Amino acid sequence: MLRDMHNWTEIRRLVLTEKKSKRAVCREFSLHWQTLEKILQHPEPPGYRQRLPRERPKLDPFLPIIHEILEQDKTAPRKQRHTTKRIFDRLRAEHGYTGGITVVGEVVREWRTTTAEVFLPLSHQPGEAQFDFGEAEVVLQGMPTKVAYCVMSLPYSDAFFVQVFPRECTETFQAGHQRAFEFFGGVPRRISYDNSRIAVARFVGKRGDTPTREFLRLQSHYLFEHHFCLVRRPMEKGHTENLIGFARRNFLVPVPRTGSLEVLNAELERQCCEDLERQLRGQPANKATLLAEEQAALLPLPKSGFEARRVEPAQANSLSLVRFDGNDYSVPTQYAHQKVTAIGGLEEVRLVVNDKLVAQHPRDWSKEQVHYNPLHYLALLERKPGGLDFAKPLENWGLPDCFDLLRRRLEADGGAHGRREFIKTLRLLETISLAALTAAIERALEIDVLAVDAIRLLVQQGLEEPTRWFRLDNHPHLQSHSIPPPNLLSYRELTCALTTGGVL
């Protein structure tokens, strides 16, 4: 290529500058006269130029079919669109095409190039944000687990925040906002979203129109403005869409191994802080400096805290279980068959009846699990003591050994009555701690006093604090008072009279 360009330059110089004859140059370089004319017309080789499109007699009749297939693909799911191979197979099987696959690929590439969407560069003002969720895999407590991670970004400064949650739902949606606002040191004035059912309750045309109640509760607390993008138009929040992939490739590769998602979230927050030191191409300063400038455009954080939670109406069944998010949680048996309000947070599930908290359980993010609190069923067992050995809520309770010894001694002395006494003793756990009752039972076994009333007295005795000396060190207002010594003269006269046999 370089030698050809050298000859091209030399030929033009000899003819146009040195005024050497064209006949001599053609003879010297073995050129046709038409080739020499082309060299003299162009400062550099123009390359191959095809005058007319190459004919494709086998494929041309099928071009409308190919274009129709590609046009229909625009509305199909991205992962279920036609490949060149699939179009080629359909042309042969359904339309009798006898040509090759190469020319089909050329037509597909040409069509996609000429019809590809062109985007307008957008200007982002300080205080605007974008929010979205992505999916990744982590090894949680030794098990491969699919998780959802949220990304909130500020396009003006390119600062972003990433957090991982068990899955995408109302409470994780709210918690992601809450933590991002604290990380940025303020609340964006306007946030763009896709049309997730978590945020949108009703659609008008291709855009979300009515937010959900829980989204409005979040918005009312932080007072930001929302913007829902058009359906299947992620380019309206392309900044966060790109950061979803960036966070996965840079923060979650290799696959993280962790014992807790909160430990992983602390590491992700640290990496987001480190990323603020990065300076983007064309920017005058790093992200941290731009974020400090942008914070003036952010809304202040509310003084009151926000609780990320989901509220759902439910009803306790005949087993005194309430279903929330695919799992069952127990309530005291007195609330069976009643309407219950389930409040699910990131860490716990609270069950409320008539504005009264009746049960609390750790949140289970798996599915189809049952969580019993044995204390919820003790009142029922007192009426049905025969079910003590078969009650599923009491399985694997893990009580200390002294409880089993107390039951054996009570039943040995009183039979069925002893079993009832044992259940009454268990019911003391409804109001006192396991440690306090364990100490009282051990003391009762030691002194051989096994009645439930005696154990209750021993519990109270163990909870009483011994009398302490009253010191005046921290009471300076009492130190100035003096108490006169008692007059013992009368007591002395009495003792003298008693010793001498006198009478007062």
From TrEMBL:
| Any single biological process term in GO | DNA integration
Which stretches make up the Integrase catalytic domain?
122-301
InterPro entries, per the entry? Integrase_cat-core (IPR001584), IstA-like_C (IPR054353)
Q: What is this protein called?
A: Integrase core domain protein
